[in-house]
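Q: I'm building a small set of examples for a reading group on sequence design. Run inverse folding on the following structure and report the sequence directly after it, with nothing in between.
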């Protein structure tokens, strides 16, 4: 081998290769560090985004005050809602014999009733609660939660839809009707004097809706009849009416059912026109 060839090999090993060996690792390390920082940043941003979604999502739902948009969630304050509705719900007694009486529930509504100068508060209930006191066969009394009994008079009734209106001297604040028709899955609360226990509360959801009834999973029993069925904003969507032993659901007469005889509705349907 000549000296020229030896010099050429040494030049290749000590010059260009030396430059590559000295600088390439520095470039690779810097690129790797940038990639690692980018991955960490993306992970942090993704984690924060997921956390914000799951934490702010429920807040957004509970801030929503329109059941038409989201009637599926429970109220922001169940305690406040229960207190509000109990204040407007009464126990109703139909005393038609020495030891014969029926009892149920009723809820206040701002509608016109006869003799309002004497009996200023109108109460919605079920026909079967006051049926035995019709035509002067008995006397009707009402009582607020934990309060005294007050006399009441039967103002109007609709036997076909099992609804009635009575008026009383007891002054309680009225509840308001929901302008939004409920749908399957909606959160609901039933309030009334279940089996004689005043102010009883049961939660559930809407199972389905017919032309005149709202089928619910909330537990109701004797004494709940005539009490209000409430949505997640505190509005009335029906009057608790019946329960079936062994069935998975109970029933309330809807606001639309009230249009037949209890109150005036344009077109005969309340929800269709609101």
């Amino acid at each position: 081998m000549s000296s020229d060839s030896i010099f050429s090999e040494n030049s290749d090993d000590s010059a260009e290769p030396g430059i590559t060996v000295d600088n390439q690792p520095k470039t690779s390390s810097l690129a790797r560090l940038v990639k690692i920082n980018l991955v960490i940043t993306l992970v942090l941003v993704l984690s924060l985004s997921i956390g914000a979604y799951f934490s702010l999502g429920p807040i957004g739902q509970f801030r929503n005050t329109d059941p038409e948009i989201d009637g599926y969630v429970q109220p922001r304050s169940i305690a406040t809602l229960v207190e509000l509705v109990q204040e407007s719900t009464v126990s109703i007694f139909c005393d038609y014999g020495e030891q014969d009486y029926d009892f149920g529930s009723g809820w206040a509504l701002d509608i016109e009733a006869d003799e309002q100068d004497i009996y200023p508060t109108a109460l919605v209930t079920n026909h079967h609660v006051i049926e035995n006191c019709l035509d002067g066969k008995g006397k009707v009394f009402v009582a607020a939660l934990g309060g005294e009994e007050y006399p009441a008079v039967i103002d109007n009734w609709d036997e076909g839809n099992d609804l009635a209106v009575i008026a009383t001297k007891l002054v309680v604040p009225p509840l308001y009707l929901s302008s939004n028709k409920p749908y399957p899955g909606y959160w609901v609360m039933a309030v009334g004097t279940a089996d004689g226990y005043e102010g009883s509360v049961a939660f559930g959801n809407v199972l389905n809706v017919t032309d005149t009834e709202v089928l619910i999973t909330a537990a109701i029993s004797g004494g709940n009849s005539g009490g209000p069925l409430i949505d997640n904003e505190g509005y009335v969507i029906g009057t608790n009416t019946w329960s079936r032993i062994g069935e998975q659901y109970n029933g309330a007469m809807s606001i639309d059912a009230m249009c037949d005889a209890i109150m005036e509705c344009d077109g005969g349907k309340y929800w269709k026109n609101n």
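The radius of gyration is 35 Å.
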